[in-house]
Amino acid sequence: MNTLISKARIIAGAAASAALVVSAITPAAVSAQVQAPAPQGDLAQAVAALRAISTMRADFIQTDRNGQRLGGVLTLKRPGKIRFQYEKGVPILIVSDGSALTFIDYSVRQLQRWPIKNSPLGALLDPNRDVMKYGRLVSVDNLRVVGIEVRDKGHPEYGIITMLFVRKASAPGGLELSSWASLDSQNNRTIITLSNQQYGVAVPDSTFRFNDPRLPTRR
Length: 219
Known about the structure:
By secondary structure, this protein is an alpha+beta fold. It has a single domain (16-199), classed as Lipoprotein localisation LolA/LolB/LppX (outer membrane lipoprotein receptor (LolB), chain A). The protein has helices at 2-12, 27-31, 41-52, 122-125, 131-134; strands at residues 55-64, 69-77, 81-86, 92-97, 100-105, 110-115, 135-138, 145-151, 160-167, 175-183, 189-199. The protein has an eleven-stranded antiparallel sheet. β5 (100-105) and β6 (110-115) form a beta hairpin. The longest helix is centred in the N-terminal third of the chain and has 12 residues, at 41-52. The radius of gyration is 17 Å and the shape is globular.
């Protein structure tokens, strides 16, 4: 169990930084994107697909650069809310209430917070982030996949996120968010892969609340 907790801290402690892949694309294919550019219209379609997601629930696998993996359930509600509920036995929670991303480690009763805009996840969560302005298409070896990289060169501390979408008619905007890759300002890299995506599910705002581990326990 201690090994599992330690692994969770390493992976989740990067504030959900991620280098994403989908099953048909290797990390090398994503990092070596020097092929012909994809049609610019795909960028607008990907941005529209993101904005078309009102709520989403999906299983996720999170992998760090050393290959350590954890699973769980991701719940998203736009604008700005997300929850990474890790598998049973992992006393870690990552949650955004719409303004800040919070990392909670219940095993040591610690809590850390970052403004959404300072996280690579800002491109996914921050309704004020202009993805069209800061985003660019990246080419991949699969015509069914659209990749976009978002970075604000004026604020490198915000990190970089690369989102991969698979063309799917039944998904919002015709593109399904399959995974995202983000790199934070400390070069922490993690891989998140999504599966079993469900859209338009009922998600109460209470989903994005949490028990503060720093408060004394009532007896």
